[in-house]
Structures are given as structure tokens and as C-alpha cells.
Design brief:
By secondary structure, the chain is of the alpha/beta class. It contains 12 helices and 12 strands. Strands 1, 2, 3, 4, 5 and 6 form a 6-stranded mixed β-sheet that branches. A 6-stranded parallel β-sheet has the order 9-8-7-10-11-12, sandwiched between helices. Strand 11, helix 8 and strand 12 form a beta-alpha-beta unit. Helix 2 crosses helix 12. Bound molecules: 1,4-dihydronicotinamide adenine dinucleotide. The site of 1,4-dihydronicotinamide adenine dinucleotide has 28 residues, from helix 5 and helix 6.
Length: about 350
């Protein structure tokens, strides 16, 4: 491991990084713990076909840190972590997830994990036979995680529309949802029920066609999602979708979705702010599942989905107001506020 990794960890306040290789299953993964000052670290398992180990490690560190920011702004007694698994053909996946269960159990409650892109109920069920510190996908678990996230994103979009226009007025809105999986699909349903004109896009054509037909929404070619004119662009697929190339193709008034780390760089948020595009703070919007999971694991309580939505809307609104008062991009304000809170935890 290069010494630059340790420099980056020190600069950004990481506590621990594990590089995992399981001889039996062939699994390769990284586990980053960003912060446990306020409580155990929470973070899901992302399994993705990264182009390189370096990309996987970078994603792992970014996502773990974003989880701490989420905890800080949601005022949770927890910190951030992430487990990133390299998706490869020669892995025995049931054995790999069993092994991950053992790794998580050995950490003794310092790290709680759950679903993310590429890791769903089947994988979690095989882990929960090995550890107490994983989200049980069955009736014994917290339930409604993706619904909690989608509700937070939905209420966050509502806060953005009210912030710009004084009202949500759904029936006048054209909203592009990029990614129609657990979060995007749920969000599209909520928006369609409110009467918004929803355009959905997914790389998986069967998933897209099925959901669009069911919700009676327009199906978009995923390659066109970014430049289709709309009031709200809701990225609910992977992070980093707004970068040097896509930035100038966006034709929207608001960017507000559920994907983590939507902006490839903070500078892209600044450019959008200069163009008058409102960018919602993504790590606030997508904190629904974290809120639900943290309360469930630490207090044994299932916070109702609508309460989670209310809570997230209030935080999004306060970030937007502070951003307006300072004429600053909302993502910068959210990061600053999170960093102030994290620094205060660490001082105390
Ligand atoms: P998922 O795996 O259920 O769905 C993602 C969907 O996006 C898939 O259908 C995939 O085909 C599609 N997709 C990938 N790249 C695409 C592209 N370029 N264009 C169009 N579609 C694309 O994942 P899930 O759970 O819905 O998560 C979505 C995002 O929300 C991720 O970034 C995740 O980290 C974030 N998130 C999810 C939470 C949850 O509760 N599930 C909690 C917080 C964040």
C-alpha cells in the first residue's frame, strides 16, 4: 500500500483501512472506517466492477467520509464507514459474503453494515448467519431502508422547489430520475403519485421498461438522461455523474437525487451555482436509510418513514437558507457545517 494512502487518511481524519483478500472465495475488498468518535461507524457494502484497485479504494474512502458527514448533519450518535467489494467473475459469492460476515463480527460492533449497490437481501441474509452487526433483510430487521432514502430525497426535492418558487406545484414539474433501482424506483413512484411528469432512465432496459409501464411514466434512453430539459435532475444511480463533460450538458434548474457523491469534484457544484442551478446537498438528501438503520441498531426503534422525510426536509431547507444568505453553493455549506460538527466532536 502506498504511503500516499496514509497521508490521505491523516489529512481526512480516517481511523482505519482494511485490505481484504479471502483465499477460499477469492474475494477482494476494502473496508474504511472514517470516524467512531460519536458512536459506531455505519456504512453499506458496495459491490461494483471497478476498473482498478485504485478506483475501488478511492470510492471506498470517499463514501466512508460521506457517511460521517451524513451522521453529522443528521445529528446521529454514529460515524461513517464503507465496505467496497471488487466485482469479479471468479469469486464464490456465497462464501465471500459469509467471510465478510465473519470480518464484521470480529470488529465487535465498531462497524455496522447493510445494503448498497450490488449487495441486497440475498447477500445480507448469508452474512446475518455470521454476524449481529449487519442489517437483517427479513422481518427482524429495520425494514424500509430504500423507502426511507427515497422519502428523504422526495422531501428534499420538495424543499428545493419551495425554496425557488415558494411551492412544490408537482403537476407543473418535469423530473428526470437517473437509475430506477431501489431508491430511484421508489422516488419515481412518489413523484408520479403527486402528478409530476416523470422521465425515468436505467442502464438495465428490462428494469426500466417494466417500471415505466407500471408507473405510466416516460422511459428515457440512459445516454440522454443528463441533457434532457427538466426542472429537476434526480441522480439515483452511481456517484460522480456530474463532471467536466456532463456539467455543460445539464439542462435543469435543480439537481437533487439519492446517489452519494453526485459531483465528481466540489468545483462542479460551484460552476452550477454560478449558472443559477440549485444543487441539493446529496449526503443530507440520501440519509434516510442511515437514520432508520442507526435508530434500529442502537435504540431498537423503527423511525416511521414520514418522520424521516420531515427531518431531512428540515435540514435541506436550513442548508439552502444558509446558502442563499451567503450566496454560496449548498453542497459547500453542507460540507462546512458537517466539518464544523465533526471538529467539535473530536475536540470534546
Ligand atoms: P440499485 O442497485 O438498486 O439501483 C441502481 C440502479 O441504477 C440500477 O438499476 C442500475 O442499473 C442503474 N444505473 C447505474 N448506472 C446508471 C446510469 N449511468 N444511468 C442510468 N441508470 C444507471 O441501488 P440503490 O440502492 O437504488 O442506490 C442508488 C444510489 O443511491 C447509489 O448511489 C447508492 O449509494 C445511493 N444510496 C442508496 C441508499 C439505499 O437506501 N438504497 C441509501 C443512500 C444512498
Amino acid at each position: 500500500m502506498s504511503v500516499h494512502v496514509l497521508d490521505a487518511m491523516a489529512r481526512e481524519g480516517f481511523e482505519e483501512l482494511l485490505a481484504l483478500h479471502d483465499r477460499r472465495s477469492g474475494l477482494r475488498a476494502f473496508l474504511a472506517i472514517h470516524d467512531t468518535v460519536r458512536g459506531p461507524a455505519f456504512g453499506g457494502i458496495r459491490r461494483w466492477g471497478y476498473r482498478s484497485e485504485r478506483d475501488a479504494l478511492g470510492d471506498c474512502l470517499r463514501l466512508a467520509r460521506a457517511m460521517t458527514y451524513k451522521c453529522a448533519l443528521a445529528d446521529l450518535p454514529a460515524g461513517g464507514a464503507k465496505l467496497v467489494v471488487l466485482d469479479r467473475e471468479d469469486v464464490d459469492w456465497p462464501a465471500a459474503y459469509s467471510y465478510l460476515g465473519e470480518v464484521v463480527e470480529r470488529m465487535g460492533g465498531r462497524f455496522y453494515t447493510g445494503p448498497d449497490v450490488g449487495t441486497g437481501p440475498v447477500e445480507l441474509a448469508s452474512m446475518s448467519a455470521r454476524t449481529r452487526f449487519v442489517t437483517d433483510p427479513g422481518p427482524e430487521g429495520p425494514g424500509e431502508l430504500a423507502e426511507s432514502t427515497a422519502e428523504g430525497v422526495f422531501r428534499g426535492i420538495e424543499a428545493c422547489l419551495e425554496h425557488l418558487d415558494g411551492e412544490a406545484d408537482w403537476s407543473r414539474r418535469r423530473i428526470v430520475v437517473q437509475g430506477l433501482g431501489a431508491v430511484g424506483g421508489n422516488l419515481a413512484r412518489r413523484l408520479a403519485e403527486k402528478g409530476a411528469r416523470v422521465l425515468g432512465a436505467d442502464l438495465d432496459p428490462q428494469r426500466a421498461e417494466k417500471l415505466c409501464a407500471e408507473l405510466e411514466i416516460e422511459c428515457l434512453d440512459p445516454a440522454r438522461a443528463i441533457d434532457t430539459p427538466c426542472d429537476v435532475f434526480a441522480p439515483c444511480a452511481l456517484g460522480g455523474v456530474i463532471h467536466d463533460v456532463t456539467l455543460n450538458r445539464l439542462d435543469t434548474r435543480i439537481v437533487a437525487g439519492g446517489a452519494n457523491n453526485v459531483l465528481a469534484k466540489a468545483l462542479h457544484g460551484d460552476r452550477l451555482h454560478e449558472r443559477g442551478v440549485l444543487v441539493a446537498p446529496d449526503f443530507v438528501q440520501s440519509s434516510g436509510a442511515l437514520i432508520r438503520g442507526t435508530f434500529f441498531h442502537l435504540e431498537g426503534r423503527r423511525v416511521p418513514v414520514h418522520e424521516i422525510g420531515e427531518r431531512i426536509k428540515a435540514v435541506v431547507r436550513s442548508v439552502l437558507e444558509r446558502a442563499r444568505a451567503e450566496d454560496a453553493p449548498p453542497p459547500r455549506i453542507a460540507v462546512r457545517e458537517a466539518e464544523e460538527r465533526i471538529a467539535a466532536w473530536r475536540r470534546s
